[in-house]
Amino acid sequence: MDTNTKIKLLKKLIDKSEMVKVEDSSDPNFKNWKNLVERTLVKVFGKKSTEYEHFGELEFYFPAMVFTSTSDYTSDHLSCFRRDFKILIDSINEYIDEFNEEVGSTYMTNVDDEKASNISKIFISHASKDSEIVEEVIEILETIGVESNQIFCTSFDGYGIGLGENFLDTIKSELSCDSLVLFVLSENFYKSPVCMCEMGASWVLSKEHIPIVVPPFSYEDIKGVFPLTQGFKLTDPLKLNSFKAKIEEVFKIDKPLSFSTWERKRDRICGRLGKLVK
Questions:
Q1: CA distance 144 to 162
Q2: What domains can be seen in the chain, in order of their start residue?
Q3: What does the pLDDT look like over 159-175, one tens digit per residue?
């Protein structure tokens, strides 16, 4: 079963959870949904998986040791149901996120070798309102070893359009050359007409591209031409490691930073990004 099919099955569980209206483990709708969850987890992960094992540990009711005719555990049952139901929903959403990230990593490592060998520049497509975030993206690229003259970014002098040059003609020219396009995706991006044009042009020209998701924007918010080519979350250190490896490969960085040096610089940048996205 491919990863996209797994994502689809897990998302179906989230959608079907809406039919659970009564917070009671004996409710027929809940039982039907719970059975669907069990069958799906077996399909996706297998019956001996940790994910299925964690599901089996959820009880959705208060396991009292002794029941008597005067016992009333109504509030305890409700509390346990709500706790375990939330745990299960959160877990399913985490599985979906992990698979989405897996798709993103696979995409980044499957850039066509022949096309990659011709790439000599990076075009950063972004909203002008995200310039502070994009400045950190440039910092990441230069830390990896990309030269400043290999980066095209309209928000900063020395990286974009020179004095007297035509704005649209320059962008068209840059998109037409052998560039790897980085889309810095945010709410601002989707509100920008220029960004929408760059997205369409990149798709028409079949340019290699990597979507970069800026929190609180998420994979589910991605629209347009990106649904099946997920990228990575900008603040995810592990995905930044994969991004570093891809950029080093594409641009043939012959003297890459040692991992300890990269890790220190990466964490500093992530710290600044964390403050910006808040």
A1: 25
A2: 3-107 (no CATH), 113-277 (3.40.50.10140)
A3: 765 544 555 566 666 66
